Amino acid sequence: QVQLLESGGGLVQAGGSLRLSCAASGSAFSINEMGWYRQAPGKWRELVATITSGGMTNYADSVEGRFTVSRDNARNTVYLQMNSLKSEDTAVYYCHAGDDYSGLDYWGQGTQVTVSS
Predict the structure, then answer these.
(1) pLDDT tier for residue 112 given thresholds of 50, 70 and 90
(2) Phi/psi of residue 80, each to 5°?
(3) Could you tell me the CA-to-CA distances from 58 to 2, 15, 25, 38 in Å, in that order?
(4) What confidence tens digit (pLDDT) does each residue in 17-75 have?
(5) Count of other CB atoms within 10 angstroms of residue 96
(6) Taking a C-beta distance cutoff of 8 angstroms, is the pair 12, 18 a contact?
(7) pLDDT tens-digit map of 67-106
(8) Measured between alpha carbons, how far is 98 from 51 in angstroms, rounded to an integer?
(9) Dihedral-angle region of residue 2 (phi above 0 means left; psi in -120 to 50 means alpha; beta otherwise)
């Protein structure tokens, strides 16, 4: 089992920045892809950004150039630096980890990001 613990959400004004962190614990040795998804009220959960253990990244078009995903493999931690935040970035952000060995997906509990205009 893998546990994901997120931190760093909060309230920020439009144009501001926030940094999210997610630390994986437990049987995390076979985790490959980690990343972030978000869900706004009344909408489906959507991909924000992912990063593999080798450093390959993938971003949603809506955040490309404003958000940066990074990872510390030694600490099994993934980060999301969010700059130039917009009101439409308001959502609950969920950390995700994919286990290549078991094929299981793991999710964090979610952290609220609210951007005021």
Answers:
(1) very high
(2) -135, 110
(3) 22, 23, 23, 15
(4) 999 999 999 887 788 999 999 999 999 999 999 999 999 999 999 999 999 999 999 99
(5) 20
(6) yes
(7) 999 999 999 999 999 999 999 999 999 999 998 888 899 9
(8) 11
(9) beta
Pair 54, 36: CB distance under 8 Å: no
Six token digits for residue 75: 């600490």
In 3D, which of 63, 79, 73 has the Cα closest to residue 8?
79
CA 106/CA 90 separation, integer angstroms? 22
Q: Which two tokens stand for residue 98?
A: 């994919």
End-to-end distance of the chain based on CA atoms, in angstroms? 40
Q: Which residue do the tokens 């971003």 mark? A: 59
β-strand partners of 19: 81
**Type of residue found at 76:** N
Q: What is the sign of the dihedral through the CA atoms of 56, 62, 66 and 67?
A: negative
